[in-house]
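In response to the reviewer comment on reproducibility (Comment 2.3), we provide here a single inverse folding case reported in full, input and output, so that an independent group could reproduce the run without further information from us. The C-alpha coordinates appear first.
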Protein backbone atom coordinates (compact mmCIF):
# COMPACT_ATOMS: atom_id res chain seq x y z
CA UNK A 1 0.00 0.00 0.00
CA UNK A 2 1.32 3.44 -0.96
CA UNK A 3 1.54 5.98 1.85
CA UNK A 4 1.31 9.72 1.29
CA UNK A 5 3.27 12.10 3.50
CA UNK A 6 1.80 15.34 4.81
CA UNK A 7 4.09 17.29 2.48
CA UNK A 8 3.02 15.25 -0.55
CA UNK A 9 -0.63 15.68 0.35
CA UNK A 10 -0.23 19.45 0.70
CA UNK A 11 1.47 19.70 -2.71
CA UNK A 12 -1.27 17.69 -4.36
CA UNK A 13 -4.02 19.57 -2.52
CA UNK A 14 -2.52 22.96 -3.43
CA UNK A 15 -2.34 21.98 -7.10
CA UNK A 16 -5.98 20.87 -7.12
CA UNK A 17 -7.12 24.01 -5.26
CA UNK A 18 -5.32 26.43 -7.59
CA UNK A 19 -6.43 24.73 -10.81
CA UNK A 20 -9.87 23.34 -9.96
CA UNK A 21 -11.05 25.17 -6.85
CA UNK A 22 -11.53 21.93 -4.91
CA UNK A 23 -10.54 22.29 -1.27
CA UNK A 24 -9.12 19.01 0.05
CA UNK A 25 -9.02 19.03 3.82
CA UNK A 26 -6.52 17.09 5.93
CA UNK A 27 -9.12 14.53 6.99
CA UNK A 28 -9.46 13.48 3.32
CA UNK A 29 -5.83 12.34 3.20
CA UNK A 30 -6.49 8.63 3.69
CA UNK A 31 -9.48 8.71 1.34
CA UNK A 32 -7.35 10.27 -1.42
CA UNK A 33 -4.64 7.69 -0.88
CA UNK A 34 -7.12 4.88 -1.39
CA UNK A 35 -8.70 6.41 -4.49
CA UNK A 36 -5.36 7.00 -6.20
CA UNK A 37 -3.77 3.69 -5.26
CA UNK A 38 -4.64 1.92 -8.53
CA UNK A 39 -3.14 4.69 -10.67
CA UNK A 40 0.19 4.52 -8.85
CA UNK A 41 0.21 0.73 -9.09
CA UNK A 42 -0.75 0.60 -12.78
CA UNK A 43 1.89 3.11 -13.80
CA UNK A 44 4.58 1.67 -11.53
CA UNK A 45 5.20 4.90 -9.65
CA UNK A 46 7.41 4.66 -6.59
CA UNK A 47 5.25 7.04 -4.59
CA UNK A 48 3.12 10.18 -4.54
CA UNK A 49 5.99 12.58 -5.24
CA UNK A 50 6.63 10.81 -8.53
CA UNK A 51 2.90 10.80 -9.29
CA UNK A 52 2.66 14.54 -8.54
CA UNK A 53 5.47 15.32 -10.99
CA UNK A 54 3.71 13.20 -13.61
CA UNK A 55 0.47 15.16 -13.20
CA UNK A 56 1.98 18.65 -13.30
CA UNK A 57 4.27 17.87 -16.24
CA UNK A 58 1.59 16.23 -18.43
CA UNK A 59 0.95 18.78 -21.18
CA UNK A 60 -2.14 16.95 -22.46
CA UNK A 61 -4.03 17.56 -19.21
CA UNK A 62 -5.31 13.99 -19.20
CA UNK A 63 -3.44 13.08 -16.01
CA UNK A 64 -5.08 15.97 -14.18
CA UNK A 65 -8.54 15.00 -15.47
CA UNK A 66 -8.02 11.43 -14.25
CA UNK A 67 -6.95 12.80 -10.87
CA UNK A 68 -10.12 14.93 -10.58
CA UNK A 69 -12.28 11.99 -11.65
CA UNK A 70 -10.78 9.94 -8.83
CA UNK A 71 -11.16 12.45 -6.03
CA UNK A 72 -14.63 13.79 -6.83
CA UNK A 73 -17.91 11.95 -6.52
CA UNK A 74 -20.06 12.22 -9.65
CA UNK A 75 -23.17 11.27 -7.73
CA UNK A 76 -26.49 12.48 -9.07
CA UNK A 77 -29.86 11.15 -10.10
CA UNK A 78 -33.01 12.15 -11.96
CA UNK A 79 -35.20 14.68 -10.12
CA UNK A 80 -32.61 15.21 -7.37
CA UNK A 81 -33.94 17.93 -5.03
CA UNK A 82 -37.23 17.69 -6.90
CA UNK A 83 -38.72 20.90 -5.50
CA UNK A 84 -36.29 22.83 -7.70
CA UNK A 85 -37.63 21.19 -10.83
CA UNK A 86 -41.25 21.81 -9.80
CA UNK A 87 -40.46 25.47 -9.18
CA UNK A 88 -38.67 25.65 -12.53
CA UNK A 89 -41.72 24.12 -14.26
CA UNK A 90 -44.48 25.97 -12.40
CA UNK A 91 -42.95 29.42 -11.80
CA UNK A 92 -39.79 30.02 -13.82
CA UNK A 93 -40.88 28.72 -17.21
CA UNK A 94 -44.26 30.53 -17.31
CA UNK A 95 -42.49 33.78 -16.48
CA UNK A 96 -39.69 33.29 -19.00
CA UNK A 97 -42.09 32.21 -21.75
CA UNK A 98 -43.54 35.72 -21.61
CA UNK A 99 -40.38 37.65 -20.80
CA UNK A 100 -37.68 36.17 -23.04
CA UNK A 101 -37.07 38.04 -26.25
CA UNK A 102 -36.72 36.36 -29.65
CA UNK A 103 -37.69 32.99 -28.08
CA UNK A 104 -34.03 32.38 -27.20
CA UNK A 105 -34.09 30.68 -23.80
CA UNK A 106 -30.62 30.08 -22.34
CA UNK A 107 -30.17 27.52 -19.55
CA UNK A 108 -26.88 26.27 -18.12
CA UNK A 109 -26.36 23.11 -16.07
CA UNK A 110 -22.92 23.70 -14.52
CA UNK A 111 -21.24 20.61 -13.08
CA UNK A 112 -23.70 18.36 -14.90
CA UNK A 113 -21.94 15.09 -14.04
CA UNK A 114 -23.59 12.10 -15.76
CA UNK A 115 -26.36 14.16 -17.35
CA UNK A 116 -29.47 13.51 -15.24
CA UNK A 117 -29.96 17.19 -14.40
CA UNK A 118 -29.77 18.67 -17.92
CA UNK A 119 -31.85 15.83 -19.37
CA UNK A 120 -34.51 16.43 -16.70
CA UNK A 121 -34.56 20.08 -17.71
CA UNK A 122 -34.86 19.10 -21.38
CA UNK A 123 -37.85 16.87 -20.64
CA UNK A 124 -39.52 19.63 -18.61
CA UNK A 125 -39.00 22.05 -21.50
CA UNK A 126 -40.46 19.56 -23.96
CA UNK A 127 -43.49 19.05 -21.76
CA UNK A 128 -44.02 22.75 -21.05
CA UNK A 129 -43.73 24.14 -24.58
CA UNK A 130 -45.34 21.24 -26.42
CA UNK A 131 -46.16 22.13 -30.03
CA UNK A 132 -44.84 25.67 -29.52
CA UNK A 133 -41.35 24.35 -28.85
CA UNK A 134 -40.40 24.31 -32.52
CA UNK A 135 -40.44 28.11 -32.44
CA UNK A 136 -38.06 28.28 -29.49
CA UNK A 137 -34.34 27.74 -29.00
CA UNK A 138 -34.33 25.91 -25.67
CA UNK A 139 -31.12 23.89 -25.84
CA UNK A 140 -29.52 23.30 -22.43
CA UNK A 141 -25.77 23.85 -22.04
CA UNK A 142 -24.31 21.14 -19.77
CA UNK A 143 -20.70 21.47 -18.59
CA UNK A 144 -18.32 19.52 -16.39
CA UNK A 145 -14.55 19.33 -15.88
CA UNK A 146 -14.53 15.59 -16.55
CA UNK A 147 -14.37 14.58 -20.18
CA UNK A 148 -14.97 10.97 -19.18
CA UNK A 149 -18.26 11.66 -17.43
CA UNK A 150 -19.40 13.90 -20.31
CA UNK A 151 -18.80 11.10 -22.82
CA UNK A 152 -21.07 8.84 -20.81
CA UNK A 153 -23.69 11.54 -20.32
CA UNK A 154 -23.89 12.26 -24.05
CA UNK A 155 -24.89 8.63 -24.71
CA UNK A 156 -28.08 9.13 -22.71
CA UNK A 157 -28.13 5.51 -21.51
CA UNK A 158 -29.32 4.74 -17.98
CA UNK A 159 -30.14 1.64 -15.98
CA UNK A 160 -33.85 1.00 -15.61
CA UNK A 161 -33.66 1.48 -11.84
CA UNK A 162 -32.16 4.93 -12.41
CA UNK A 163 -35.27 6.08 -14.26
CA UNK A 164 -37.77 4.14 -12.13
CA UNK A 165 -38.95 7.24 -10.23
CA UNK A 166 -39.68 9.28 -13.36
CA UNK A 167 -43.30 9.76 -14.46
CA UNK A 168 -44.59 6.91 -16.60
CA UNK A 169 -45.39 9.36 -19.38
CA UNK A 170 -41.71 10.35 -19.51
CA UNK A 171 -40.49 6.76 -19.47
CA UNK A 172 -42.83 5.85 -22.30
CA UNK A 173 -42.40 9.04 -24.30
CA UNK A 174 -38.73 9.88 -23.88
CA UNK A 175 -36.98 6.52 -23.41
CA UNK A 176 -36.69 3.28 -25.34
CA UNK A 177 -35.20 0.00 -24.20
CA UNK A 178 -31.49 -0.43 -24.92
CA UNK A 179 -31.25 -3.96 -23.49
CA UNK A 180 -32.81 -5.95 -20.66
CA UNK A 181 -31.37 -3.65 -18.01
CA UNK A 182 -30.96 -0.24 -19.65
CA UNK A 183 -32.91 2.40 -21.53
CA UNK A 184 -31.73 5.17 -23.85
CA UNK A 185 -33.15 8.67 -24.14
CA UNK A 186 -34.98 9.57 -27.33
CA UNK A 187 -33.02 11.62 -29.85
CA UNK A 188 -35.30 14.65 -29.48
CA UNK A 189 -34.28 14.92 -25.81
CA UNK A 190 -30.60 14.03 -26.24
CA UNK A 191 -30.27 16.58 -29.02
CA UNK A 192 -31.57 19.31 -26.73
CA UNK A 193 -28.52 19.09 -24.45
CA UNK A 194 -25.12 20.42 -25.51
CA UNK A 195 -22.31 18.86 -23.47
CA UNK A 196 -19.04 20.79 -23.15
CA UNK A 197 -15.96 20.39 -21.01
CA UNK A 198 -15.47 23.47 -18.84
CA UNK A 199 -13.58 24.38 -15.67
CA UNK A 200 -15.53 26.72 -13.41
CA UNK A 201 -12.20 28.07 -12.16
CA UNK A 202 -11.37 29.60 -15.56
CA UNK A 203 -10.88 33.32 -14.99
CA UNK A 204 -13.02 34.27 -17.98
CA UNK A 205 -16.34 32.65 -18.89
CA UNK A 206 -16.33 32.41 -22.71
CA UNK A 207 -20.08 32.78 -23.23
CA UNK A 208 -21.35 35.40 -25.67
CA UNK A 209 -24.75 35.76 -24.04
CA UNK A 210 -26.02 35.69 -20.48
CA UNK A 211 -28.22 32.92 -19.12
CA UNK A 212 -31.82 33.06 -17.96
CA UNK A 213 -31.32 30.10 -15.63
CA UNK A 214 -28.17 28.61 -14.09
CA UNK A 215 -28.21 25.32 -12.20
CA UNK A 216 -25.03 24.71 -10.18
CA UNK A 217 -26.05 22.27 -7.49
CA UNK A 218 -23.86 20.25 -5.14
CA UNK A 219 -20.70 21.50 -6.83
CA UNK A 220 -19.64 24.27 -4.45
CA UNK A 221 -19.54 21.84 -1.51
CA UNK A 222 -15.98 21.16 -2.68
CA UNK A 223 -14.97 24.86 -2.52
CA UNK A 224 -13.84 27.10 0.31
CA UNK A 225 -15.78 30.30 1.03
CA UNK A 226 -13.56 32.58 -1.03
CA UNK A 227 -13.71 30.35 -4.11
CA UNK A 228 -17.46 29.91 -3.68
CA UNK A 229 -18.17 33.64 -3.55
CA UNK A 230 -15.93 34.41 -6.48
CA UNK A 231 -17.83 31.83 -8.51
CA UNK A 232 -21.24 33.12 -7.40
CA UNK A 233 -20.24 36.62 -8.45
CA UNK A 234 -19.25 35.33 -11.88
CA UNK A 235 -22.57 33.55 -12.13
CA UNK A 236 -24.31 36.81 -11.24
CA UNK A 237 -22.51 38.62 -14.02
CA UNK A 238 -23.55 35.86 -16.46
CA UNK A 239 -27.23 35.92 -15.39
CA UNK A 240 -29.80 37.94 -17.30
CA UNK A 241 -31.75 40.46 -15.24
CA UNK A 242 -34.74 38.56 -13.90
CA UNK A 243 -32.89 35.25 -14.26
CA UNK A 244 -32.42 32.52 -11.67
CA UNK A 245 -29.61 30.66 -9.93
CA UNK A 246 -30.27 27.23 -8.39
CA UNK A 247 -27.70 25.85 -5.93
CA UNK A 248 -27.69 22.72 -3.76
CA UNK A 249 -29.62 22.79 -0.49
CA UNK A 250 -26.37 22.45 1.45
CA UNK A 251 -24.89 25.43 -0.39
CA UNK A 252 -27.33 28.20 0.50
CA UNK A 253 -25.93 31.70 0.04
CA UNK A 254 -25.65 34.35 2.73
CA UNK A 255 -28.48 36.73 1.91
CA UNK A 256 -26.55 39.68 3.34
CA UNK A 257 -23.62 39.10 0.99
CA UNK A 258 -25.02 37.89 -2.31
CA UNK A 259 -26.34 40.29 -4.95
CA UNK A 260 -28.99 37.72 -5.85
CA UNK A 261 -32.38 37.96 -4.10
CA UNK A 262 -33.48 34.93 -2.10
CA UNK A 263 -36.61 33.30 -3.54
CA UNK A 264 -36.87 29.93 -1.77
CA UNK A 265 -34.37 27.46 -0.29
CA UNK A 266 -31.38 27.30 -2.66
CA UNK A 267 -33.10 29.41 -5.35
CA UNK A 268 -32.02 32.99 -6.08
CA UNK A 269 -32.92 35.67 -8.61
CA UNK A 270 -31.08 38.57 -10.20
CA UNK A 271 -33.13 41.76 -10.13
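Designed residues, in position order:
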Amino acid sequence: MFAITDKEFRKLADYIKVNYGINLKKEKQSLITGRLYNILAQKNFNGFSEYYEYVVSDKTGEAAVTLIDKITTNHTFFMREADHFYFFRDKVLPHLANAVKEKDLRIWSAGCSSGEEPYTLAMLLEEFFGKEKKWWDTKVLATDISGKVLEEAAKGIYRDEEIATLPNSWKLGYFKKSDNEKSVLADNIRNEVIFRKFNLMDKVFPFKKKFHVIFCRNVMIYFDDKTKWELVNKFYDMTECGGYLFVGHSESLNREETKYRYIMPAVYRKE
